[in-house]
Structure formats: C-alpha cells, structure tokens
Amino acid sequence: MVKIADLKVGQVLKNEFDNITRDLLKHYAKASGDTNPIHVNDAVAEAAGLKGVIAHGLFSFGFISKLFEDFLEHGKYGKIIEFEVEMRGMVRVHDLLITEATVNKIEGKRAFFNVKQTSFTNVDIKDKNGTIVKQFEAGERGYVSEKDIERGFVKTKEVKEGTLTYRERIATPGSAIIALYE
Predict the structure, then answer these.
(1) Residue 182: pLDDT above 90?
(2) HSE-up of 63 (CA within 13 Å, CB side)?
(3) What is the pLDDT of residues 45-68, one digit of tens each?
(4) The domain 4-180 is classified under which CATH number: 3.40.50.300, 3.30.365.10, 3.10.129.10, 3.40.50.12780?
(5) Is residue 97 within 8 Å of 135, Cβ to Cβ?
(6) Which residue, 27, 118, 144, 153, is the most exposed by fewest CB within 10 angstroms?
(7) Gyration radius from the chain CA atoms
(8) Angle between helices 22-32 and 57-71 (to 10 degrees)
(9) Minimal CA–CA distance to 125: which of 151, 159, 96, 101?
C-alpha cells in the first residue's frame, strides 16, 4: 500500500529498460499508428540525417508513465495529475533507458516530482593498448558527435573486457504530480 506518509522529499522512483530493438520499435509503430519511417527504416533515417533509426518520443515517454502507474498499482493507490516533459535527446536501438522521478515537494495528498530520463549508448570497448575489441552499433554508425564530446556526454569506464566508451545524456527532463488516496 502506498500512502503519502510513506513518501519523503528526496526519495527516488526508478526503472531501467535495456531491450530496445528494431523489432520492438516496429511493433510500437504498428500499435501506436506512428509509422514514420525514421523509427523503423535505417535508410530513411539516414537520409534524414539521423545515422539510423530512433525510438518514438512517446515510446520513451511511456516508460515515465509506466514508472508512476507501477508505483500507484494502476490507480489502486492514487492517480497521475500532471506530466510536463521535454523530449530533448534521441533514444536509439540498444540504448539503456533509465527513468528516475525524485520527490521534490509534498503538499497534502499530492507529491511533486522532478523527472529525468537518461539514455546510455555504448560505443566501443578498447583494450589497454587502445585497440577496439568490441564495437557497438553506435560506434559503427557514428552516433556520437563532436557536440556530444564537447558537452561532456561521452564517458568511459572500466569493464571486464577493457575500457567502455559510452554516451550518457538526459533524453527527457520534466516534472510530474501524483495524488494519493490516503
């Protein structure tokens, strides 16, 4: 049971999704009716300057909605009052998508959240000599730009196989308000 008394300012709700595939985007396109080919056809996406397909904005947004619906057990303990989000960054096939909502204020039975959805795009793994031992689609297609590097989005971390280079950027910032019944 979720009660307003159980929430604290600074508390974080979080979900992760790492199974974004071309087939999933095709199924989403069919189900949503948004059949814009930049979401399902690499050649069309490339012709539009995207270097490959991108996920639908509402596909990504769905994970924000899902985070709150799961927390509220689909209306059992409360309801979503409002969402405000900006779709700033593209989400791509094979990205890890992390959605976080942090309680920033509680008033009565309402909880106010800052929402942040971050995409993580693996580029490559290099051994200690700088030789690429594994290249991901982002590296093959050139998803990472000079602008990404300048903005500090490109990072590295040590993994079992060597040094992983990846891009981390906020794809969708925003806010949300929920109302709890108790």
Answers:
(1) no
(2) 30
(3) 999 999 999 999 999 999 999 999
(4) 3.10.129.10
(5) no
(6) 27
(7) 19
(8) 80
(9) 159
User: Where do the domains of the chain lie?
Assistant: 4-180
The C-alpha atoms of residue 55 and residue 82 are separated, in whole angstroms, by: 23
Cα distances (angstroms) measured from residue 4 to each of 10, 15, 69, 149, 178: 14, 21, 16, 42, 10
Q: Which among 181, 130, 120 is positioned nearest to 153, based on CA atoms? A: 120
User: Is residue 1 scored above 90 in pLDDT?
Assistant: no
CB 172 within 8 A of CB 115: yes
Q: Could you count the other beta carbons within 10 Å of the beta carbon of residue 25?
A: 20
> pLDDT, tens digit, for every residue of 122-166?
999 999 999 999 999 999 999 999 999 999 999 999 999 999 999
Angle at 52 between CA 46 and CA 57, to 5 degrees: 110
Q: What are phi and psi of 79, to 5 degrees?
A: -145, 155
171, 88 contact by CB (below 8 A): yes
